[in-house]
Amino acid sequence: MTSFWTGERIRLRGIEPDDWTAFLRFAVDEERLGDAVRPPRSAAGHRAWAEAQAAAEPDGDCFRLAIEALDTGEAVGAVSSNHAEPQAGRFEYGVTIGADHRRKGYAAEAVVMLLRFMFAERRYHKCEARVFAHNEGSLALHRRLGFVEEGRLRDHVFLAGGHHDLVLLGLLADEFAELHPPTG
User: Fold this and answer.
1) SS3 category, 103
2) Which candidate, 139, 112, 118, 125, places its Cα nearest to that of 62?
3) What are the angstrom distances between the C-alpha of 70 and each of 29, 56, 107?
């Protein structure tokens, strides 16, 4: 049997100390997209962060994984589960793909793997996502995956000199199972 964490194009794996350069590129890409403006972090800061991530234990059902392209072995992005509330049966997730690796199906494959784990193995009922309204690519990805817009927080985020809407999306476990049946 192939690993649960290996798909057609990618595998999800723990973050390694050497991934710091990839995460440095992802931070620059997110700023260019208008998804995050943070003070610059030094190379040493990125190295220390990656080393800490590599040594960190998951915090319950909250964790971050690197997305590795199978054909090159390169870290092309990251996916994470966040704000997991087992009693309520819901969690949030996030995904980022490096600018030079977008539109290759990596994000969709990584998200489906993560959702399959959280819904089938961890028995969560609902996944929530928050997407900036100006990020049309991410909104389209979520709609293709089966997420439904549940609300919009108007002028909710101040970023890059202006206020922006935040779109709230949700996907239920049974909706996911119907759209993304197990393979194999």
Assistant:
1) coil
2) 118
3) 22, 24, 14
